[in-house]
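Hi all, posting the design record for the shared folder.

TITLE: backbone redesign
STEP: 1 of 1
STRUCTURE INPUT:
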């Protein structure tokens, strides 16, 4: 991978069979659909890709399948998320050997860490990875908010290539964009928030990593291209529609949180005929009944295309 990775880099879902094995055929359909839509890269084993629920064997299977399916058509990033540096380095080594183009890591978690340890963590990863490292800012999961000054310093030194921001902190992201610009933009900044990609672009983001792009990749690609062309009316129109579509993640009544969000993405993909089942990893259960119908209703109203009548 040469140059900055910008544009739309969806965090790819990990389709499962009913008995919770990797559904390779569905995975292939998801990836090929995303590439056909014109995305600029793919990110496997993120939060949407169920990295926290995967055994090491499952991680290896996902990465091996993704490398084979992508076949160099777009850059491929892999999540190497784990509790502490040594464990992350093991995942980095495996991912790099399998042929991914870059890795994505959070701050350490479980053991309490502070800024000096977080800095050292990313410095070690950057020094030993051999491929670009992206910092993943997701405090809701790791309970640490990455500091903008720290991130820019790590970018200047070359320890990290960019940041995937899923913090939900628009003020901190704006500060990061301003500091990155003042430093000559050493970092590629990517927003992980489906609802406000347009606002992130106005702040200074270079691209997006939206889980909803699994469901509607064309919409996010159109949004990004309109941004590059300075067509802000189209940017706003696409973002407004995508925000309405994102309501699928808020529509479930039988579950909340991660299971509702990723469960909705998988349910929408199942209804679109892209994946075979909407199964999710234990201890979660797939959406059923009224929750599936709620997703179907929103898809029909504001989704990328009308549902096949056979699936209604």
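Okay, here is what came back for every position:
SEQUENCE:
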């Amino acid at each position: 991978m040469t140059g900055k990775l910008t544009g739309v880099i969806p965090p790819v879902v990990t389709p499962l069979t009913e008995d919770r094995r990797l559904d390779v055929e569905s995975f292939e359909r998801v990836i090929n659909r995303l590439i056909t839509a014109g995305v600029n890269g793919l990110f496997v084993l993120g939060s949407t890709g169920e990295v926290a629920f995967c055994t090491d064997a499952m991680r290896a299977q996902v990465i091996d399948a993704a490398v084979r399916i992508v076949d160099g058509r777009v850059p491929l990033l892999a999540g190497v998320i784990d509790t502490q540096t040594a464990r992350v380095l093991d995942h980095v080594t495996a991912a790099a050997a399998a042929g991914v183009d870059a890795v994505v890591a959070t701050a350490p978690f479980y053991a309490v860490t502070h800024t000096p340890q977080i800095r050292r963590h990313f410095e070690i990863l950057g020094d030993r990875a051999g491929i670009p490292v992206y910092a993943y800012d997701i405090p809701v999961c790791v309970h640490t908010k990455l500091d903008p000054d720290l991130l820019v310093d790590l970018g200047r030194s070359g320890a990290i290539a960019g940041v995937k921001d899923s913090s939900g902190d628009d003020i901190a992201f704006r500060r990061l964009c301003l500091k990155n610009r003042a430093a000559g933009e050493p970092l590629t900044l990517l927003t992980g928030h489906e609802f406000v990609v347009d606002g992130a672009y106005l702040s200074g983001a270079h691209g997006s990593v939206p889980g909803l792009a699994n469901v509607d990749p064309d919409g996010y690609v159109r949004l990004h291209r309109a941004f590059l062309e300075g067509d802000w009316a189209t940017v706003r129109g696409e973002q407004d529609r995508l925000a309405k579509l994102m309501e699928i993640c808020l529509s479930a009544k039988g579950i909340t949180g991660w299971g509702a969000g990723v469960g909705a993405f998988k349910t929408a993909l199942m209804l679109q005929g892209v994946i075979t089942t909407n199964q999710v990893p234990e201890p979660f259960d797939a959406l059923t009944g009224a929750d599936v119908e709620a997703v179907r209703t929103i898809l029909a109203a504001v989704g990328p295309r009308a549902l096949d009548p056979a699936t209604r």
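COMMENT: The chain has twelve helices and eight strands.
Let me know if anyone wants the other runs.
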